[in-house]
Design goal:
It contains ten helices and eight strands. The protein is α/β, with parallel strands linked by helices and 334 residues long. The protein has an eight-stranded mixed β-sheet with strand order 1-2-4-3-5-6-7-8, with helices on both faces.
Length: 334
């Protein structure tokens, strides 16, 4: 286990030798909705020349998973980098007695937690409050959009990587009906159950071959080495409730009425060409609707050959995405 963790550190050193030890993260916590302990990490301790950055991770992702991305953006002049551990995952408090279940009682809890997180970020004297940017991955994009639709925008611009604006299911409405039956009818199951086929995390079942996230075996392994080093990070499949809440939230945030609330916020979507986790068509719909109701300030780029985990993809896929995001953010920095 120690050897594997050293491989992770060595890999990060190879990628970013100057910053790997200088920018060791600091962890902080606050109390979220229903007295949940929410933890966030801070990388860097001074204002970057281009501003500061907030990262909203995807489902089952801890702040540590985005260490490489945080170090990259510090090197590009965005500092500090703040990364939240959403409730029920990472270093934050779990929702159920089984800590492996990916669960949320109400999707709105995510964006209410996120608001408290942003309050902490804005109170930090190291933060460049006039040049604060937001980056998200997957579920983190849904949390970010939901937050922006409910609270005052503190960001100069936002970039969402493979955002979960729609889960890849045969039919959202059919899935909502199935989950309703499980949640609200007798003898059909329980909302807190795993989705069919879902289960606890088991290292022995982890396989790089056939994964839906990345072509890079090294970056694929980073997450699981951290999980073995810090068992509290481990997370299994999603629950029925999580799926139901997520689909309902996605449908809500894609409505023109809700999109109109964020019409003035510049958004850049980085789409994975070969995404098998979230629905690219829903990203296209979201961006088109935003441009219809607003200032045509939603841009979208497709990364060829990319799987869902663009930020942990192989260099030839990941680097163009980082370059696009860097250029986009810098076009707004003072």
């Amino acid at each position: 286990m120690f050897i594997n963790f050293m491989k992770v550190l060595f890999f990060i050193l190879l990628i970013n030798p100057v910053y790997a030890f200088e920018q060791e993260p600091q962890n902080y916590s606050f109390t979220g909705v229903n007295d949940f302990k929410i933890v966030y990490s801070k990388f860097g301790n001074k204002k970057g020349v281009n501003g500061s950055l907030v990262i909203s991770p995807g489902r089952a992702e801890s702040s540590l998973k985005h260490t490489e991305t945080a170090l990259d953006f510090i090197e590009l002049g965005f500092s500090p980098v703040y990364i939240i551990n959403h409730r029920g995952q990472g270093f934050s408090q779990r929702a159920l007695s089984n800590p492996h279940k990916g669960h949320v009682e109400n999707f709105n809890y995510y964006h209410h937690d996120f608001q408290k997180f942003i309050e902490k970020v804005l109170q930090d004297p190291d933060t460049d409050v006039n040049n604060l940017f937001a980056l998200s991955h997957s579920m983190g994009g849904a949390v970010l959009v939901s937050y922006l639709q409910h609270y005052k925008n503190p960001f100069k611009a936002v970039s969402m990587v493979a955002p979960m604006l729609g889960i890849k299911v045969d039919s959202e409405d059919a899935t909502l009906f199935k989950t309703w039956v499980i949640c609200y009818t007798p003898f059909a199951g329980d909302c807190n159950d795993y989705v069919p086929g879902g289960k606890d995390y088991d290292l022995s079942e982890v396989r790089f071959e056939g994964n839906k996230s990345t072509h890079s075996p090294e970056r694929f392994q980073v997450k699981y080495d951290f999980w073995e080093k810090y068992p509290e990070l481990q997370l299994g499949s999603a629950t029925v409730r999580w799926v139901r809440e997520s689909i309902q939230a996605n449908q809500f945030m894609r409505s023109k009425k809700k999109i109109a609330k964020i019409k003035d916020i510049p958004i850049f979507i980085v789409q994975a060409e070969n995404d098998e986790v979230v629905e690219n068509a829903k990203q296209n719909i979201f961006c088109d609707r935003k441009n219809e109701v607003g200032k045509k300030n939603c841009d979208l780029v497709i990364i060829p050959d990319a799987r869902h985990g663009i930020l942990i993809e192989s260099d030839e896929i990941r680097q163009p995405a980082i370059d696009f995001i860097e250029a986009y953010f810098k076009s707004f920095s003072i």
